[in-house]
Amino acid sequence: MIITTIVLFLYVINAIGLWKMFEKAGIFGLWSFVPLLNVWLLFKIVYGTGIASLALLIPIINFFVILHLNYSQVRVYGQEDLLFKIISVFFPHLTRVYIGWSDLEYIGPVRSLG
């Protein structure tokens, strides 16, 4: 029961952050509450295409893809601070809330997963 509550809390925090991130990128904000679609759209914001999210289906590689996604999501909103990028790897949900509700603006996707 307690684990379910924690997971639900993190999901809601993540969705709230993604909501504002999506709006800054010109995407309908309520899509952040739709599972799988929100991941597809986050990949589209960060990498320019949602098809890159299919890399999450590959075992072991998916771990590194998520780390790179969390690291890169900061860049597409104009934040170049290395410490902030590292924090986004370890606390992606809180970073998304900060990015979404701060005055950072969406500047466009990074070039690739590499």
Can you describe this structure?
By secondary structure, this protein is mainly α. It has one domain. Helices cover 57% and strands 0% of the residues. Helix 1 packs parallel to helix 5 and helix 3 (61-72) crosses helix 4. The longest helix has 23 residues, at 2-24. It is globular. The mean pLDDT is 93.
| Average predicted confidence as pLDDT | 93
Question: Stretches where pLDDT falls below 50 for ≥5 residues?
Answer: none
* Structural class category: mainly alpha
Count of helix runs: 5
Our count of domains comes out at 1
Number of strands: 0
Gap between N and C termini, in Å?
A: 39 Å
Estimated helix fraction: 55-70%
Tell me about the biggest sheet? Answer: none
Instruction: Report strand %.
Output: under 5%
Broad shape: globular
Radius of gyration: 13 Å
What are the secondary-structure elements, in order, as H or E? HHHHH
What is the multimeric organization of the chains shown? single chain
Keywords: Membrane, Transmembrane, Transmembrane helix
Transmembrane segments: 50-70
Primary descriptors:
transmembrane helix, DUF5684, single chain, 57% helix, transmembrane, mainly alpha, membrane, 114 residues
